[in-house]
Design the sequence.
């Protein structure tokens, strides 16, 4: 662990600089995915969870491992499979024959960063085991609630290509994710840099995470989340966020729009975005910048739009263009 | 409907064989068919001829052609009764006509199903089975699995047969017309010549010929489609096997009556033997032939038959040769038409054919343009967008951004407001002024949905670096005031007042131009 780790009480500037350091560190491992790193940081600062969607081999797992390494927190990974049971995630009670008592075996969710890999491969009941911990940050085992260590963040991944044998996430579960992040292919220059970084004087094809430095502690992350929560949001901006969410419910091309949790998530994510910009207030651009990752999994595309080759981002962009910006 | 009453031999046939059977059916029952059909055709054709103005007589044939589904229904009604050995009188056929008009899907047959190429194949489902809606669709799907293509080719073939009949009638007239008027008429059909004196009679002749063609071909078309349908049902419902078993049952009953003491084992033996007889093709053929073919009572041995054939071929009637003597003119060469005249006629003929083809192409293009109108319109869309002029908005973010709403000296007014402590109004005025310049001078397409950041992004490519920097600072201070409710310092705001004149240089130029104009 780095010797010069910051103390938990932070100013806005310190928090902003730390966020930038985390970004720089992760970018060393995840080359060419600036937007993905930025959006993951937004979720981390806002205390939310992220659903990452992308084809295999783009570094979804690497992102989470790099993030865990950078914040020197605990990291756990669950590979979701069709036979995974809820108790495999949350934990269970086991009778200890030797001591004649029941022991609680805590599941992998008791960690700072949880990677739920290929979350849509498990049935809905197993996926729902994550609901409580994502919402309440606690797990109930045999009637007793056990809090998970803070900060707690779930990063779930899913593959958009292979749909056979998968279980689409229920809307209630999707709503729990603050952001849905698309991870795409890198450009030629980025891919060349990536190949260089991974293959230079090393065995195997994995990025050596030892090269990354831990720049913050989990406690500092909690402090950064506190700073984020105190960023000012004007009523006009909240009004703008709510009008965007309302517009998704009335807009053409969507089967259903986002709920009130969408407006809340917009403001939370916009605060984190403002912090990354080093600002102590939120303006409408912050809302607009985070609108797509915040809303794209909370709305459902109408079948006719889907048939015509549109996706939710197309429709949401149109909604954003039509929603009047705040009038001050 | 009793299968045993069928007047045809029910067995599995190929589709073409079934069509042939349909033709045979018309030949067998033409007397029952022709009179009611002829009267119905007249009932339609006569009013059409009488009511249509003379100039519109060429479309009379089209009108009668359009009513073909009506004729088909009457023909099928008669044919279906004849098939089960039920004689239908003329009165019965016409009494059934109202029922046929109302309950056999005639409306759809005369409108959106008029161009169906499998009309005669589908007609029995509408008329005889009376199916509608989903059952009709399912039935059609089942029937169309086989025989559909044959039905299509039957329709196409019959259309050609109608043309052949019409052309044959013209040829007949050509053979008997010494004046050459018929040939002129045929040529004029392609050339489009109009001879006022004889035009009406020529058109009437065309109409009459077409009616005759309809009279000759349509019964065959309906019967062939009907037999295709019967054959398909025979395949699907095994009518042939059902009839075979019925015959077997009847024969066994007769045997039982004749000899009540016959043991069941013998009956079983008989049944098996009969079954073998039925399924054996050669025996079956003999059985069929004895009923339907006319053969001599005695069969000759091949050698005797050959001798008999030679004997017949030697008869005078088959070997009659006569010599005829006639006068032939010495100069028998007929005056040939001049080469120029001939080539002119050919050219005219080709020209008129090309003209007809051109019209067909035009019609096809118009139809295709109608069908693909959406795609064509979508190609034109970018052009429309380009043509659309962009008018700058008058209100943005609730701010009045018309040029006339601003004071002459924006920087001075803003400074005065700032000094009076109206910081928000001062920054608002500057930002409003900047928006006026961007929308009216830089022609930025700023919409209501654009935020301050979007406007900066829009302005960046078209604005000079120093002016862009000014706009950025102004936007930042405006956002801080608007959304964080914090006053910028005097030090921050001073460059905005001093730099305004440089920023608004294009606006001044605009005003000067306006004054000069």
Sequence:
């Amino acid at each position: 662990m780095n010797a010069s780790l910051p103390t938990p009480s932070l100013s806005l500037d310190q928090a902003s600089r730390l966020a930038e350091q985390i970004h720089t560190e992760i970018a060393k491992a995840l080359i060419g995915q600036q937007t993905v790193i930025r959006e993951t940081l937004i979720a981390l600062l806002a205390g939310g969870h992220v659903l990452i969607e992308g084809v295999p081999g783009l570094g979804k797992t690497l992102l989470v491992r790099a993030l865990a390494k950078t914040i020197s927190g605990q990291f756990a990974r669950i590979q979701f499979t069709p036979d995974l049971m809820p108790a495999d995630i949350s934990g269970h009670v086991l009778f200890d024959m030797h001591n004649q008592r029941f022991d609680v075996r805590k599941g992998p969710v008791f960690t700072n960063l949880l990677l739920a890999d290929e979350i849509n491969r498990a049935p809905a009941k197993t996926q729902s085991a994550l609901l409580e911990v994502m919402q309440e940050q606690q797990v109930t085992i045999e009637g007793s609630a056990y809090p998970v260590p803070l900060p707690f963040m779930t990063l779930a991944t899913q593959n958009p290509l292979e749909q056979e044998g998968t279980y689409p996430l229920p809307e209630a579960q999707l709503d729990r994710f603050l952001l849905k992040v698309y991870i795409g292919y890198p450009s030629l220059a980025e891919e060349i840099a990536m190949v260089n970084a991974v293959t230079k004087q090393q065995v195997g094809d994995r990025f050596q995470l030892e090269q990354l430095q831990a720049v913050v502690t989990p406690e500092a992350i909690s402090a950064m989340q506190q700073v984020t929560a105190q960023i000012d949001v004007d009523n006009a901006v909240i009004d703008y966020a709510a009008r965007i969410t309302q517009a998704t419910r009335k807009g053409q091309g969507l089967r259903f729009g986002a709920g009130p949790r969408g407006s809340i998530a917009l403001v939370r994510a916009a605060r984190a975005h403002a912090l990354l910009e080093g600002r102590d207030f939120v303006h409408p651009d912050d809302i607009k910048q985070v609108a797509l990752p915040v809303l794209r999994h909370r709305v459902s595309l109408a079948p006719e739009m889907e048939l015509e080759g549109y996706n939710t981002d197309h429709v949401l962009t149109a909604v954003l263009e039509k929603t009047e910006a705040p009038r001050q | 409907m009793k299968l045993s009453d069928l007047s045809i031999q029910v067995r599995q046939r190929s589709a073409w064989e079934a069509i042939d059977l349909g033709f045979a059916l018309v030949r067998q029952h033409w007397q029952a068919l022709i009179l009611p059909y002829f009267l119905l055709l007249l009932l339609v054709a006569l009013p059409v001829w009488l009511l249509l103005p003379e100039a519109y007589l060429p479309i009379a044939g089209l009108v009668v052609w359009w009513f073909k589904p009506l004729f088909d229904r009457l023909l099928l009604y008669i044919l279906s009764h004849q098939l089960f050995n039920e004689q239908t009188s003329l009165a019965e056929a016409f009494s059934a006509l109202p029922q046929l008009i109302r309950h056999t899907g005639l409306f759809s047959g005369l409108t959106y199903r008029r161009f169906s190429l499998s009309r005669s194949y589908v007609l029995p489902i509408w008329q005889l089975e009376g199916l509608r809606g989903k059952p009709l669709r399912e039935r059609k799907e089942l029937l169309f699995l086989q025989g559909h293509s044959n039905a299509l080719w039957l329709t196409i073939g019959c259309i050609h047969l109608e043309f052949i009949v019409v052309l044959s009638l013209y040829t007949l007239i050509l053979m008997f017309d010494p004046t050459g008027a018929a040939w002129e008429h045929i040529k004029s059909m392609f050339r489009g010549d109009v001879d006022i004196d004889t035009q009406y009679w020529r058109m009437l002749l065309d109409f009459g010929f077409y009616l005759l063609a309809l009279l000759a071909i349509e019964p065959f078309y309906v019967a062939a489609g009907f037999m295709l349908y019967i054959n398909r049902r025979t395949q699907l419902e095994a009518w042939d096997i059902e009839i075979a078993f019925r015959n077997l049952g009847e024969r066994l009953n007769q045997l039982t009556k004749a000899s009540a003491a016959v043991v069941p084992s013998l009956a079983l033996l008989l049944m098996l033997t009969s079954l073998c007889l039925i399924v054996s093709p050669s025996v079956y053929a003999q059985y069929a032939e004895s009923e339907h073919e006319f053969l001599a009572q005695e069969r000759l041995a091949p050698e005797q038959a050959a001798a008999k054939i030679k004997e017949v071929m030697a008869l005078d009637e088959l070997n009659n040769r006569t010599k005829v003597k006639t006068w032939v003119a010495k100069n028998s060469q007929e005056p040939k038409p001049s080469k120029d005249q001939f080539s002119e006629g050919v050219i005219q003929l080709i020209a008129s054919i090309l003209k007809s083809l051109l019209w067909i192409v035009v019609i096809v293009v118009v139809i295709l343009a109608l069908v693909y109108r959406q795609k064509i319109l979508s190609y034109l869309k970018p052009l429309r967008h380009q043509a659309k002029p962009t008018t700058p908005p008058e209100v943005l973010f609730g701010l009045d951004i018309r040029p006339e709403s601003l004071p002459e000296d924006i920087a001075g007014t803003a400074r005065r407001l700032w000094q009076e402590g109206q910081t928000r109004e001062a920054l608002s005025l500057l930002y409003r002024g900047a928006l006026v310049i961007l929308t009216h001078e830089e022609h930025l397409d700023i919409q209501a949905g654009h935020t301050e950041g979007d406007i900066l992004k829009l302005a960046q490519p078209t604005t000079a670096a120093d002016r862009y920097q000014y706009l950025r600072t102004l936007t930042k201070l405006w956002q801080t005031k608007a959304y964080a409710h914090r006053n910028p310092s005097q030090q921050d705001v001073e460059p905005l007042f001093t730099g305004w004149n440089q920023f608004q240089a294009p606006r001044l130029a605009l005003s000067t131009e306006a004054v000069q104009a």
